[in-house]
Amino acid sequence: MKKLFKIFILLCLIGIAIVVWCSHIVVKSSRGKIFDNVNDIPCNDVGLLLGTNPIGRTGRPNIYYVHRIQAVVDLYKAGKIKVVLISGDNSHRSYNEPEYMKKDLVSKGIPADRIFLDYAGFRTFDSMIRAQKVFGQNSFTIISQEFHNQRALYICQHLGIDAVAFNAKNTISRYWRIRMYFREKLARTKAVLDILFGKKPHFLGDPIPITIPKDTIFQKDTTNNMGLKDLFHRKRDKNEAVQITIPEESFDLIESTDPKGAKSLIMRNASLKQHQKDTLLKQVFGFYCSINLDYVNVDENNWPTSEEFSIMQDYTESIDQALKVQPDHPNALFVARVTYNGVCQVVWMLNNPEIAIEYLDGIIAKGNQIREFDYSIEKDPEWKLIDFFLQDFPKSNT
Questions:
Q1: Is residue 257 part of a domain?
Q2: 51: CATH
């Protein structure tokens, strides 16, 4: 009996030693490759977002999920990644991690065409090897919590993948931290054993190419007498860069009265008039978007009250900011806002119309518009639909 007990103790000590050793080599493999600050992490074409359930065990939003989504948004907006590959579990129809995450990323301003989905990322090991073998990526940025990133980097090291990782926040309670600590020890041990014994992923399949957009760089130019402008560079190839000037907004107010006595007020972005011959700018912002909103409180001439005008102005400015996504990396150029006959029309030229469609359809679907509206989007690379706003007007105010 004593002999069996000693054997049992010995096996336990060997098991503990193996777990500690595996954890040590996993952590060691991540040194110098794992980052907490967006400004410090190097750029990569692809960000690999590791999936998790949006709902936690308690029925509340999963804090790991929430922080991973925000981490991807921060990296994308900082220009640290160009596209996102979401790798998660879709083992049955009612559960689809990649689609859940894509929906939330799009709602936060990442274009749908910059997001690729891996539905067979059942385990971290599968996610890494499929990113390499199926999606053709040998260099990428992993996005998850630190404990998860360390294990993923260990796997990448042994697969010959040049990866770095960005740590999403980890704000779980002490109880869950302790529980996750022991769970992760076992997960690291399994990862090491998978590598040692040449474990294969559940599925591979045919190659799925990821389209990487051309390099995009924004910087400020203070040499122009007209003030700050954003310089938009799209690198066509290694030896050529195209420079597109995004003009700083400046506004004209044009007031008029038609023969029937109906007033109109146009606020237009006058700076676009000076760039109407810029064919590259037109190609980048080649989609016309118009929103028509109905004023609610108007006088006998169908002109909005001061309070109503202020409400509409605040509302349309919030839409403007949402369509632009980022002030220094805009998806939309504001063209004009027109008030006439009880209606407010707002016009933009868009880069990626999908962002606008997702946002505007989302507002309509929820039914929480501050003012009812409809919208239209048309391809217009020649800017013909905004010719009216680019003509010479007598200025009432500037």
A1: yes
A2: 3.40.50
